[in-house]
Amino acid sequence: MSAPVITGLGVVAPNGQDREAWWRATLDGTSGLGRISRFDPERYPVRVAGEATKFDPAAHAPQRLVSETDAMTQYAFAATNEALADAAVVPDDFADLDMAVITANSSGGVEFGQRELQKLYSEGPQAVGAYMSIAWFYAATTGQLSIRHGMRGPCGVLCSEQAGGLDALAQTRRVLAKGTRLVLSGGTDASLSPYGLVCQLSNGRLSEEHRPERAYVPFDSGASGYVPGEGGAIFVVESREDARARGVERIYAEVSGYAATFDPRPGSGRPPGLRRAVELALADASLAPEDVDVVFADGYGVPELDRQEAEALAAVFGPEAVPVTVPKTMTGRLYAGGAALDVAAAALALRDQVIPPSVNVRPDPEHRLDLVVDRPRETRLRTALVLSRGYGGFNAAVVLRAV
Amino acid sequence: MSANMTFDDLKAVMSRCTGDVDDLTPDKLDAAFTDIGYDSLAVLEIASQIQREYSLQIPDEAIEGMQSPQAVIDYVNASLAAV
User: Fold this and answer.
1) Chains A, B: CB contacts under 8 A, how many?
2) Average pLDDT for residues A173-190, to the nearest whole number?
3) Percent of chain A whose predicted confidence (pLDDT) is above 70
4) Which of B19, B37, B42 comes nearest A66 by C-beta?
5) Across the interface, do B19 and A130 touch by the CB < 8 Å criterion?
6) What are the residues whose beta carbons fall under 8 Å from the beta carbon of A197, sequence distance 6 or more?
7) Sign of torsion, CA B10 B14 B20 B23?
8) Chain B contact for A68, CB < 8 A?
């Protein structure tokens, strides 16, 4: 079969509760970062996050499902509704085994889990709800979507920290090649409860800057870590032939290439794996570096990691040779939802022929990047590269092409 | 708490577990939980809530036997009468 195509998109993000609201905010450079409001962060070193505070779960799923799920899954309910409507998918038109759900997850349902664990140690085991047994698992979102939409094909969940959103697309491509007709792919995460935040602190990469506009500035000489965020994106992915056959009006993009690499152990002296991921993804797409019109960079915001990414980009593309952007400067890093949201941004960039900006960043000239800052850049776009890295050594790259 | 569980009492318990019970009407008393949209976890959650609210110990085997709303009410009332 030819490369799979994305025919539907749904989004929940800190700076927009649905696809088009988020995309407008993203093009406008409207940030969703702010002081944490879920709880009083005064006693925590990290005070800034990208919260999806205006999200109303009951608007997207029956109360029964809201009661038994964590926010991460509720975001996926909303994004899935939007993606299915966008792609004009009627699940009843498909056999249940021909449809699958493959999401990425990194944080699990930590807010739900925290609530039940607090009941456990304050009131005892009897007080813990039965849904604790499923709501906080990595696979909870995939399972709930599979049940809700009757999609019983080869479902799965990818757990590769912040690279997962791209790895889920790769697994999607694999099952489509084996005959599955339609896949819900992407990822959502919601890790901003106190317990969720404390779990993240141990990686040492979170920004302790308290000013939202300075807290997450990848490639800036003032970069001091990243801001966590919540939300993500869900896609409808199918073969181009199937999409055409059922009369799909708009194909956002083709998933032309993918690669994943793993970093060598610290101290090995070998180079990090990101550059190789880029090169392998381009080779997989049968494209040359000069074919790439825009790079959605990972943009970790950790100085050493920014340097590694800038070096990889300069090595593959040449210094300042390709426009680069980090729209996640407006949302924070959404864990498994982050790369998924970047794929959504790349798809809409191809649709609208415009590169969304990175905000609050003054790129360090030493990085030799053509970073699109503050304002969107209108230009001819045919091919986009999306990069993502996850804690522990994960690297992934996806090439999207307009069709 | 009355020493007897009525249909409305069960509905109240279920509403505290899962929120939405508008569809639960008396004609569904004998319907299988699985037919009215409550999976085994939902029944476990309902039983767990009853244990807390009615101070009952419900063994796992009894929960497995709770196939319908009426079966829950019958079990609870029999247990309350035995106390």
Assistant:
1) 33
2) 98
3) 100
4) B19
5) no
6) A36, A41, A44, A46, A49, A191, A228
7) negative
8) yes
Give the minimum alpha-carbon distance from A67 to chain B in angstroms, rounded to a whole number.
Answer: 6
B48:A131 CB<8 A: no
A334 within some domain = yes
Residues of B in contact with A74 (CB under 8 A): none
Tell me which of B48, B51, B54 to substitute to probe the interface with A (most A C-beta atoms closer than 10 Å): B48
For the residues A359-372, what does the mean pLDDT come to?
98
Q: Are residues A239 and A261 in the same domain?
A: no
pLDDT digits (tens, 9 = 90+) for A308-330: 999 999 999 999 999 999 999 99
Confidence bin at B23 (pLDDT 50/70/90): confident
Helix (H, G, I), strand (E, B) or coil at A49: strand
- Do A294 and A239 sit in the same domain of this protein? no
∠ CA A312-A396-A223 to the nearest 5 degrees?
55
Residues A239 and A260 in one domain: no
Strand pairing category for A377-378 and A354-355: antiparallel
Strand partners, A48: A35
Q: Per the domain annotation, does A251 fall within a domain?
A: no
Whether residues A129 and B42 touch (CB distance < 8 A) is answered with no
Domain spanning B7-20+29-82, CATH architecture: Orthogonal Bundle (1.10)
Per-domain boundaries in chain B: 7-20+29-82
User: What's the pLDDT at B52?
Assistant: 87
Give residue A18's identity as a one-letter amino acid code.
Answer: D
Distance CA B82, CA A111 (A): 40
Q: Which residue has the tokens 């996050």?
A: A49
A130 with B20: Cβ contact below 8 A: no
Q: Assess whether pLDDT exceeds 80 at residue B1.
A: no
Q: B43 to chain A: nearest residue by CA?
A: A130
CATH number of the structural domain spanning residue A237: 3.40.47.10
Q: Is A134 on the interface with B (CB under 8 A)?
A: yes
Q: How many domains does chain A have?
A: 2
Q: What is the mean pLDDT of residues A265-285?
A: 96
Q: Give A190→chain B minimum CA distance, Å.
A: 21
- Domain extent, residue A200, equals 5-245
